[in-house]
Every structure is written in C-alpha cells, then in structure tokens.
C-alpha cells in the first residue's frame, strides 16, 4: 500500500510515521510536510531511509498533486494547531486547516484515492461541564483553531456524502510525548522547570483536559485506518482527565522542583473549561490505550532531559 502522510515531520505525525514503518515494512510511506517551525527532518532522522520525504505545503495545489500521484491512501495530520497562535493570527489557521484540507480532498477525489483519514481534535466539540462527548454530538468550537478544524471536519464529511470519497475522521484528546514542540503545556512546563524558570498557568489552573500519550493515539489512528467504517468519526482519548494545575505539580515533583515556580497568568481568551470524549466506539474496533498516565509522563520528562538537542 502506498500512503501519503501529511504533517509527518511534526509531533504526532513523526510518531505515527515511525510506528507505521516499523509495523508495516511493506507499506510505501511518503511524507509531505512544509517543515514549519514545529516540524523538522530531525524528527525522522532514525527512519529517513524507510520513507520518501517531500517538502511542500498543503495550501499549494501543485505540491499536493505531485505528492498524491499513485497513492492509495492519505492520512492527514498537517495543521496549524496552537490555540494561542490562532487567537493572534487566525488567517494562517483558516488557510492551512480549511483550504489546505480542501486541496487534499480535491486531489484525492480526482485521483480516486482509496481512503482518506483526517486527523482532528476533541476541541471541535467545545467545553462540557458533565459527561463526555460522543461522535454524534454537535460541534461547538470556541477558538479560531478549533473552528478551523471543525470546518475541515465538515468538509471531509461533505466529500464523503457528495462525492463518495472514502473518508474517516479521528478526534483525539490532548496528546503528549516525545517530539512535541515546546509551545504546548507539558513541554513548556518541563523546559521551564529544568531551568528553574516560572511555570505560567492560565487563570486558576483548573481547566480540565483529557490526556493521551502520543503512542496510544497513534495506535488508535492505526486501528481506525484499517478497521474503521467508511464515513464515520472516531474519538480517541486516554481517559486521563487532569487539571492544568495537577499536570504542573506532577512535572515539578518528577523533576524535584519547588511549587513556588508556579505562576498564574491572565487567562486565555475563550478558554474552554473542560474537555471530555467518549471512546467506546473506537474501543469496539479492538483498540485500548496501553500507557498509564503517570508512567507516560515520567517517560516524557526523561525524554526531554535526554534530548535537549530537540528543544534548546
């Protein structure tokens, strides 16, 4: 099988590519990535001889067409994903996440691609006080980032309904693990704590997220790709709901740093209070997360300590 993986040099993408080349050595993997600030060929250096890499942007029609030639499937990770950046500059998020996805869908349709898997986020559902969102629940995004992802989700679904494109969508909770660019919560906290710098926490620190170790998300995407029902959406979550303050204290404890480093800052605009997703539909395909949260967090802290080349 010939698979194009967009965004394969980024955080989740590189972990997924690494898993795929090791698990399916007969697959031909082509990575399309524009190598923005959050993506790097160094993230793939240990498997560079097992993949084909194309530097290109999904907003560029020619780059997309060249990449998808002779492909059987597309797994679409490429996205602008940092909420704070979307608040400051929403235009980039609409261009990449909506128009870029449109480019891929059009090319996939015209090239009769067998399967198109779109990677999305639980943030498209918005905040929930109690219970957990199911795949059939209404989308209610709060930030320009989550709105752009919701728009791309709906485009993907429309291409299935209108054109019969064989699509799948996964919506995962907050990922963490190796190769995450140090702008997201956990790597920022680890980096700052290592150097005894203040750990900035929005608002009262009680915003809740469900956390999933990146390898568990990748295995979930793999299961959905191979076993998911065409046209369907699948939630992938770790079942680890933690407040930002809880996460911060766990990292400080692991690094033996004082809680006095915690610094509360002005809350993010439109900050969702709690995310939670129901993953029973994905588990029915035979998937389960393997990592215990505390073990995965310790592993992640250790990885950042041992791989300062990645973030210094």
UniProtKB/TrEMBL annotation:
Residues 5-298 form the NAD(P)-binding domain. GO terms for biological process: nucleotide-sugar metabolic process. Its cofactor is NAD(+). InterPro entries: dTDP_Gluc_deHydtase, NAD(P)-bd_dom, NAD(P)-bd_dom_sf. It comes from the Archaea. It holds the Pfam family GDP_Man_Dehyd. Signal peptide: none annotated. Keywords: Lyase, NAD. GO terms for molecular function: dTDP-glucose 4,6-dehydratase activity. This is dTDP-glucose 4,6-dehydratase. The lineage of its organism: Archaea, Methanobacteriati, Methanobacteriota, Methanomada group, Methanococci.
């Amino acid at each position: 099988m010939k698979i194009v993986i967009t965004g394969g040099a980024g955080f989740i993408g590189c972990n997924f590519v690494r898993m795929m080349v090791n698990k399916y050595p007969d697959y031909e993997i082509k990575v399309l990535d524009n190598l923005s600030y959050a993506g790097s060929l160094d993230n793939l250096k240990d498997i560079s001889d097992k993949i084909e890499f194309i530097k290109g942007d999904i907003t560029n029609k020619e780059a997309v067409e060249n990449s998808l030639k002779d492909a059987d499937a597309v797994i679409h990770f490429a996205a602008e994903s940092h909420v704070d950046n979307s608040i400051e500059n929403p235009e980039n998020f609409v261009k990449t996440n909506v128009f870029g996805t449109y480019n891929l869908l059009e090319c996939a349709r015209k090239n009769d691609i067998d399967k198109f898997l779109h990677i999305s986020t639980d943030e498209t559902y918005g905040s929930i006080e109690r219970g957990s969102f199911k795949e059939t629940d209404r989308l209610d995004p709060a930030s320009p980032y989550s709105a752009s992802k919701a728009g791309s989700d709906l485009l993907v679904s429309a291409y299935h309904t209108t054109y019969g494109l064989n699509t799948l969508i996964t919506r995962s909770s907050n990922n963490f693990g190796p190769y995450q660019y140090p702008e997201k919560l956990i790597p920022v906290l680890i980096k700052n704590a290592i150097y005894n710098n203040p750990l900035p926490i929005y608002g009262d620190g009680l915003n809740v997220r469900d956390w999933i170790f990146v390898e568990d998300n990748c295995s979930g995407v793999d299961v959905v790709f191979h076993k998911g029902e065409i046209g369907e959406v699948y939630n992938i979550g770790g079942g680890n709901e933690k407040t930002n303050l809880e996460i911060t204290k766990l990292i400080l404890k692991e690094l033996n740093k004082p809680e006095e480093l915690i610094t509360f800052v002005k809350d993010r605009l439109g900050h969702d209070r709690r995310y939670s997703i129901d993953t029973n539909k994905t588990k029915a395909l035979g998937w389960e997360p393997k990592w215990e949260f505390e073990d995965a967090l310790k592993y992640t802290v250790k990885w950042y300590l041992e791989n300062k080349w990645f973030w210094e």
